[in-house]
Amino acid sequence: MTLSRTNIKLASFLDSAREHYFQAREAVHQARLRRARYRATLSELVALSDRDLKDLGIARANIRKIAKQELLIGENE
Known about the structure:
Layout lengths: L1 H46 L2 H7 L6 H14 L1
């Protein structure tokens, strides 16, 4: 009887650990996707000329801030 209870507890623990593992794995995957989107936006903005940035009303000093804002807006959609 004791062995059976131990097996049930172990199975429950393993199921819980497996669930946490897959949740953490998904969180890492999502973080990588967000980071890639941030880098792509940042690269596009950095590649623009000062004149293009001025036409868009963006100061070069604000490029990182705008890339982060785009990332947050994209998460809310």
